[in-house]
Amino acid sequence: MKTPFFVLACGLLSVTPILVHADDASRDQEIVERFAKCDTNKDGKLTKEEAKGCMPRIYSHFSYIDSSGKGYVTVAEIQAMANR
Q1: Other CB atoms closer than 10 Å to residue 43's CB: what's the count?
Q2: Distance CA 2, CA 70 (A)
Q3: Is 32 within 8 Å of 74 (Cβ atoms)?
Q4: 64 near 9, Cβ under 8 Å?
Q5: Is the per-residue pLDDT at 83 higher than 60?
Q6: Is 68 exposed, middle or buried (0-12, 13-18, 19+ CB in 10 A)?
Q7: Which pLDDT belongs to residue 2?
Q8: What is the rounded CA–CA span in Å between residue 66 and residue 59?
Q9: Which residues are CB-contacts of 27 (< 8 A; sequence separation ≥ 6)?
Q10: What is the pLDDT of residues 1-52, one digit of tens each?
């Protein structure tokens, strides 16, 4: 008996969000780990100087991420940018 195409398509579609979510979760985990290594004073804030040699993309886009001009970025701000 052949399986109808519709059933196969629905099965594939139901797996896709899980795969996307797994990629987001692994990217978020990598951000957390790299942030922890770069946050040299362990205050939960990454300054542009801390990002300079450790997270070059964050360093390059620092003023964009720190749009309010606080002088630091947080893990949540970096993750939000990465999820755009």
Answers
A1: 10
A2: 61
A3: no
A4: no
A5: yes
A6: exposed
A7: 53
A8: 11
A9: 82
A10: 554 443 334 444 444 444 445 588 899 999 999 999 999 999 999 999 999 9
Q: Where are the alpha helices (DSSP H) in 1-84?
A: 5-38, 48-52, 56-60, 62-65, 75-82
Query: Residue 32: how many CA atoms within 13 Å on its side-chain side?
Result: 6
Q: What residues does each domain of the chain span?
A: 45-84
Token reading at 76: 């949540």
Residue 59: CB partners within 8 Å, gap ≥ 6? Answer: 48, 51, 52
Q: What is the pLDDT of residue 84?
A: 83
pLDDT, residue 69, reads 97
Residue length of the chain: 84
